[in-house]
Amino acid sequence: MTVSDTAAPSRFDAALRRLYLVRFAFAVAWAAVLFPASGSAGPLLTALLVVYPLFDAGAVLWQLRTGDRDPGAPRAAEWTNVVVSAAVAVALGWASTVSTAAVLAVWGVWAVGSGIPQLVAAVRRRGAGGRVPQILSGGISVLAGAAFLAQGLRGSGDIAGVGGYAAVGGVFFLVSAVRLGVLLRRKAS
Fold this sequence. Notes:
The chain is an all-alpha fold. The chain has seven helices and no strands.
C-alpha cells in the first residue's frame, strides 16, 4: 500500500464507482432492448447500435473531465477510446444500412480498438483499486471483437451476440463498482 492508498477516500474514486454502476445499468438495459430488436433491421436497431458507442465515449470523457488522483498521469489510452468510440458510432450507423455482417465487422473492430486502450489504462492504474475486472474486460473485449470481426467477414446475419457482449461488459463494471466500494469503505475506516 502506498500513502495515497491509506488516505481518505478520494472524490474521484467515489465518482468512478457511481460511473461504473451507471455503465452497468446502461449495458444491461441496452442488451435487454437489443435482443428483441436484433432480428430486424430498422431505425430502432440503428439507434441502438449508434447509442452504445456514444454512451461509451461519453462515459470515458466524463471520467477524463472528472479528474484523477494523479493529474499528470498519461491519458492517451482514454482519449483514444473516446475518439474510436465516437467514430464507430458513425460507422455503425452507416453499417446498419448495409448489412448485419457489416455491423458485426464494425462492432468487432470497435471492440478490439476500445478493448486495447481499456486494458492498457487498467493495467497502468491497477494499484488504484477496482481495476482487475477492467483488465479482464479489456482482454475479453479484444477476443470478442476478433470473433465479431470474423463473423462479419463470414457474412453472419445474427447480431444478438453483441447484446451478450454488452451484458458481460456491464457485469464487469458492476464488479468494479463493488470492489471500489469495498476499497472506499476500508479507506474511510
